[in-house]
Amino acid sequence: MNDYDEVQSDNSIKLTPAQIDSLMELGNIGSGHAITALSQLMNKRIDMSLTSVDLIPFWKLPEKFGGEEIEVFGILSSVQGEQNLLILQIYPKNSIINMINSLSEEKSMNAQNINILSDLDDFSLSIITEVGNILSGHYANALADLMEIKLVPDVPDVAFDVLGAIMSSVIAKTSEAVDLMITINTKMDIEDLNLNGIFCFLPAVDTLNKLFKAINLE
Amino acid sequence: MEKKKRKDLVSRANHRGEISIPIGHFALKETRNISRDRCPKFIIYGLGSCVALILYDKKAKVHAMSHILLPSYQNVKEKTPLRYPHKYADHAVKDLIREAKAKGATKDNLKAVIVGGAKIFKNHYNNIGEENVKTVKQELDNYKITLVKEEVGGTSGRNIKFDTRNNSIFVKTSGKTEFIKII
Question: Which fold has domain A3-214?
Answer without folding.
Answer: Chemotaxis protein chec (3.40.1550)
